[in-house]
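User: Can you help me understand a structure? I only have the sequence.
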Amino acid sequence: FALLRSTPLTSDQLKEVIDNLTAKGSPAAADGVIDGNEIAGQIAELTHRDPGPENVRRVAATLAAAGWPLAGIDVSEV
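Assistant: Let's start by predicting it. Here is the structure, written out as tokens:
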């Protein structure tokens, strides 16, 4: 979560997004790969606004650091 401090999401909101993405049986984790659209969808659903590419990259970086395979997300800028 330290990577995500500069987002407008609270720590609880970030945890909820990641928990939703990684929950057993979640659509995002069903194929074992989480993509940027799935991350953006979870953030938008929680906040009811466009997550912006910087928030998607930050969440993706956290997931990647925890070992989750990601599809089509460049986290090198984070």
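Now, to help you interpret it: The chain has a mean pLDDT of 79. Residues 2 and 57 are 13 Å apart (CA to CA). Let me know which part you'd like to focus on.
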